[in-house]
Write a structure and sequence with these properties.
Elements (H helix, E strand, L loop, with lengths): L2 H12 L13 H10 L8 H19 L1 H8 L9
Length: about 80
Amino acid sequence: MCGFSGRSCRFLDHLGAVTTGPHVLDSDDLRNGIKAIRTGDIPTTTSRRVSSAGCDIVREMFQAGELQSLLTEKGLGAKATA
């Protein structure tokens, strides 16, 4: 649901990277746990702020060809070229 996370995921999907993880909205316990550690007055989960910066980094790495190399090196099933 987060646009920044969605964009990052599309880069990874395009490269064929194998990704998994929990969906925060599917778990009341997980969502409430994140809210409990939230900082500041921003009415959203902490991950959104990380996702916005992370999306920029993922995009830059993708454009430079670095993301493909990193995913391949880490064995995450990325295509060698995009």
